[in-house]
Every structure is written in structure tokens, then in C-alpha cells.
Amino acid sequence: MHQQKRQPELVEGNLPVFVFPTELIFYADDQSTHKQVLTLYNPYEFALKFKVLCTTPNKYVVVDAAGAVKPQCCVDIVVRHRDVRACHYGVIDKFRLQVSEQSQRKALGRKEVVATLLPSAKEEQKEEEEKRIKEHLAESLFLEQSFQPESRAVSSGPSLLTVFLGVVCIAALMLPTLGDVESLVPLYLHLSVNQKLVAAYILGLITMAILRT
User: What share of the chain is helix, strand, coil (3-state, %, to 5)?
Assistant: First the structure.
């Protein structure tokens, strides 16, 4: 006996909802922003019905707050701000889009969209510009502080190794030369003329390096 395969039921609230944009920004001094559009997409193989809810419905007018979306189609939902007052500046409101199958009442998915009223688009752009300038100055200061220790190390004077090599070269030049019989220094410490020339050359290089720093 063959059992008929049942279509898996969609779990309530787990269906992804695709809406754009996810944030609405209204500017009090720009009437063109008082009307904005939310686009709801339906990428599925079945039709969806939707409903738009708002935390402060008295501040907004939502055209076609409920309706249906055909499979693999989209609909535009117009949102108008009707209470543009200074007391609402910076207040964050929320819209919730709930979708479900046309034959069911339970919500298969939901998506929240935030809405904010700001006083001026120019002030917003000015704040963004000031923010970018501050970030640039902070980055420049960080780079300057990062390179300062290295420059200080270079200009702080000769290293211990340089000083040690200089002392060795001076000591080598002060030792007796081979063939000096009257010297009290042991014979194995007597240096040849070529060895002293090498020591003098190295000492000259060290002296030039110290003078440049």
C-alpha cells in the first residue's frame, strides 16, 4: 500500500520575509521624504497575504496596509508621515510586516522596519562629514604615534654594538705592531700593519655613522 506524501507544513514565524528598505528616515525640512515606499518580495512558489502593523499608527498613514503578493512577485507599500513635529525628532518607531498563506490565519513570518524623523537632511550630512573628519584625524594621530618610537630610536644616538666596535678598533690601534721588540705586551697581541689599517678603516666608518645621527 503506497502512502501519499504529505507536503511539509510551514512552521509559524519561521518563514523569511524579504522587504526593502529595512529603515525609513524622514526629514522634517524635506517634504519629498515624507512619503516613502516599502517593497515586499515573495520569492516562494505560493501566494502570500500580508499585514502592516505600527507601534504609533497615529503618526503614519499606510496605503494598502493589508493585501496579497503573488508567487515570485512584489508589491509596494506606501508609508506617509503625517505628524512632522519637533517633539518627534529622533524618536524610533517600528513597523511590523506579517505574512501568511492565503488559506491560513497564522503568521508564517514577520519582519520589523524602523522609522525615524530627523530635523534636516543638511544637518545629517554635516554630522556625517564631521564624523568622517574626526575618524581621519584619529587615524592620522594613530599613525603618527606608531612611527614616533622608531624615529626616536634612530635619533637617540649610537647603539651599544657600535660603541663596542669603536672601542675594539681603538684598542687594536693602541696595540704594538709586529716587530716592536721593546714593547712589554705579549707577542701574540702584536698586530700587523694590515690589521691596524682594517681597524682604522672600521673606526672611520663608525665615526661617520655617529656624526650623521
Answer: 40, 30, 30
State the cell numbers at 150. Answer: 622608531
> Which three cell numbers mark 64?
494598502
Q: Residue 21: is the preceding peptide bond cis (ω within 30°)?
A: yes
The answer to whether the beta carbons of residues 29 and 121 sit under 8 Å apart is: yes
What 3-state class would DSSP assign to 155? helix
Closest CA to 68 of 55, 59, 60, 77: 77
Taking CA atoms, 165 is separated from 7, 170, 199, 200, 202, in Å, by 86, 9, 9, 11, 8
| Model pTM score | 0.53
Residues in the chain: 213
pLDDT at residue 25 tops 80: yes
* Domain at 18-121: CATH code: 2.60.40.10
Q: Where are the domains of the chain?
A: 18-121, 159-174+190-212
Question: What mean pLDDT do residues 179-200 have?
Answer: 75
Strand partners, 24: 115
DSSP letter assigned to residue 137: H
With a CB cutoff of 8 Å and minimum separation 6, the contacts of 114 are 22, 23, 24, 92, 93, 94, 95
The per-residue pLDDT for range 49-67, each reduced to its tens digit, is: 999 999 999 999 999 999 9
